[in-house]
Amino acid sequence: MASAKIQRTIARQEEKYTISEGQYYEAHQQLRVIASRYVKSESWDAAIDLLYGGALALLKAGQGGSGGDMAIFLVDVLGKAGKEVGIEEKSKLLTILRAFPAREPTKKRFVAEMINWSSRTGDFPLGDPELHHAAGTSFAAGKFTVQRHLRQAVPVLILATEGEPYDAERHLALGTKDSPEQLAKCEYEWYTQDEPAAAALYAARAIFPYLLVGNLRSANKAHLIFTSRLNSSNKSLSVQEVSGKSSDMRVYPILPLLNFLGLLLLAVQRGSSDLYKQLAKHYAPHVKEVGVWDDALAQVGEMYFGIRIPRQGNPLFEMMGSMMGFGGGSPKPKPKKVDVPPPPAAELD
Questions:
Q1: Cβ contacts of residue 79 below 8 Å, gap of 6+?
Q2: pLDDT range class, residue 68, cuts 50, 70, 90
Q3: pTM, whole model, 2 decimals?
Q4: Where do runs of H (alpha helix) occur along the chain?
């Protein structure tokens, strides 16, 4: 909790910059100077409390640039102070994140610094999931419009918005158990502004990110939430329920790519490379029309089914290896194989 002295310092600055808008810059600079003195004397807790209170006060006053600068300074001090990811630290950062005005440019840098700090000092090398979830949810807020790239049969999707949809997707993919629902709902909302046939393109944006970080549970949850919304919002959409001993699936006669995504998840769950290869072959014409899934599917094939991604070899290395007898081919990184315990084998009825 901030000391009485620090609270009085912040209160004095608040009193100044509520008098007239021209006082904001002065208040920001004075708070920064005082915080720097605390840092120089290694009075870490005092610096942290002052930067937190100052950043929050400025952001609430609509001073996104100044507040964002103080917030970024705060994260820097957390690192210098050797503070690890804890309840108090996360609470401060999340409170600041929620106070950022819409479309404030410094928010992205603050989020990046916050995630980097948590990756260095916490238990998660890719960043704290709670911080990722909060950041993704914040970036997903706002109104979105959809533009289409018309050079392909199934257009590539370009999202134009006041928010940051791509940042939202990236952070929610590394978030908490609640993130798949948030991401799937966002993707469905964006889909409603596009053509009905584009459903699979948006569903894939909620499914592939989780598969590519080895999170099958979240991929399945995102798929279920997206398709459930699709069904409930489109009563006239033809859907066939296919039930098996170990799994159920919805089949959409007019949405083959959505069927492909469902079957892909089933193949991953069963650990069946044969089923994956059959799917890839059967749906190849449809996937080719999309034009942007190839890399993701190659990664899925390597991660879950051990299907190596062809990599460009080094001709000189291969020639030398053949001549000197230590084996041709250039060194290749070992693929990341994700083992998914399959349920009891059963065929769909």
A1: 117, 120, 121
A2: very high
A3: 0.81
A4: 4-17, 24-40, 44-60, 64-80, 87-99, 106-121, 129-140, 165-172, 179-191, 199-212, 216-233, 256-270, 273-282, 284-290, 294-305, 315-324
